[in-house]
Amino acid sequence: MSTRPSVSWQKNPALAWREIDHETVIISPNDSVMHELNEAGSFLWKNIDGKKSAAELAQLLAENYEVSADIALSDTEALLEEMSARKLVMTIPVAGGARS
Amino acid sequence: MGLRNRASLLDLMGHVQAKLIQLPSLRGMKEVGMRLLSPRRRAPGIYVRSKLNALPANPRRGSRQQFELSIGRVPLRLQMSDRQLFIAASERYSAFSDSTARPVRIRLNEGAPRESVLPEFGYEFEGAVLSAFANEIRFDGVENQYALDSMIRVFLTWKLLSHSGFLLHAATVMRSGKAYIFMGRSGAGKSTVASLSPEGSVLTDEISLLRRENSVWRAYGTPFWGEFRAAGSNTSAPVAGVFRLLQATENRVEALRPVAILRALLPNVLFFSAEAAANRRLLDILSEAAEEVPGYNLAFRKNRSFWEVLPP
User: Which residues contact B187 (CB under 8 A, 6 or more apart)?
Assistant: First the structure.
């Protein structure tokens, strides 16, 4: 499943998170589950700001890590899917766009 | 973030794909609290006579009595009209009686507060309801000392957020003027550690209270005890380290890096708020502890010899 380019991603506002040792620990208070992101995941997490699309996030990843654009995009999309399934992130349609 | 990571492509793929590790053990975080809130049978001989600064005893139900106590330097004033509960509670917390200028006033069983005002923090457990308003704390439906004990624990977890503190499912043992914190779920060995420690050195065998004061983490005794059973000791000491208990056939300590300490702390923390801001504050406090307090895995045999491998 590919992420639509017309949506941007935001963090679930109900969460608590903290970067420590270059990793990110995320607490989801409603179900008392802790999630962890490694360094590259933390880099993406920090850049999820409610404005950037998966493609833009992937581009940032490719600019900061030695990884090809293709792989950066597929890894970014996979991470977003996974985090979305865990309700850590959600999409918001770009202004004027239809809801998916 | 212009730093160029030198990881190879394969490494990076591994990294990103290893991305999320869910720790199912944390699912127990709330249950830990819930289980602790279960009423316990009273063991004979735990409670000692009270010499508290109670108001003059009045046998007539309906007049309010109060006593003041301090747990982890959080001063509380409990006010109640139920004489039986008053006697039980003042005995229960006798070792923690204290009188300070500005205690947090807690009113017990005084009826529902104004409905138009939402509490800053609320919690309900088996019919007992805690409501923390900006200028008033209420515990309602508290029928016995066990329910009161539960309410106080829940209240403390919330109140300690403003004191850089938290409650931890752990035993605290004093040694050479420092507090050693042994954490783990039931069966991990907290009570065993407590029973293998010299008499008088155990601050709690069940619920430890840690808070940061003047840049130093201190552990406080609490009146919340498990199997070991005692009235509790209202003293404190700087924390030497936190130890995650693992039972083994040999004694061994392994130092943990901060993220691993945080990972070890979280499933043992008592916390009852699902509110995002409160959880963010908690995570900040725990992260600070994980970065400032040494943490270890402690594999130990069930005898005193484990002390020999502990760092000084």
Answer: none
